[in-house]
Amino acid sequence: MKRALFPGSFDPITNGHIEIIRRGLALFDEIIVGLGLNTTKQPMFSPDQRLRWITEAFREEPRVQVRPYTGLTVQFAREVGAQFILRGLRSAPDYEYERNIDLLNKYLDPGIETFYLFSSPETSFVSSTLVREVIRFHGHLEGLLPPHIIQDIYALYPGGRPVSTAFPPADPGSYGS
Ligand code: ADP
Question: Listing from the earlier edge strand, what are the strands of the sheet with 84-89?
Fold first, then answer.
């Protein structure tokens, strides 16, 4: 049984994360999505909300489980019996960041191996940070998040919908005019 931990803060989970998890299912028998709660950043969404959204995204996939955790990722991997960690890579800055975490994790626990998947062209520009920026200014979220999350977030927007009606553009040529 190959079990991998996919750790992150998922504030919120995006189509980028979901794509990596789905592709990870071809490599691992089971993926535990670890919702890390010990970040120093103030999250936009509560742990419960983030957990519900992830759970709903994989409601029909019994091989994906969601668990919140605090403490070191390698310790949590051991706790849930995961021999592997799965991470996604979008860009060179991701590589630099992940490389250091990889070295640290190997130093802490050489028995846990991390696997990296490159993001697809469709989602490589998507990050939770940028999505939060779109949410802050009540923009369109189609293509960035799964529909059930978009629906919940739009319900929080003033008037229940995004500010601009320009999505999808009636005439793609009209951008910027
Ligand atoms: P962290 O809080 O550790 O930065 P995130 O929740 O932002 O975690 O992301 C968790 C994992 O998902 C990381 O490996 C990150 O690189 C990866 N990831 C985030 N967005 C994407 C994306 N659009 N495509 C592929 N991987 C992604």
Answer: 64-69, 30-36, 3-8, 84-89, 113-118
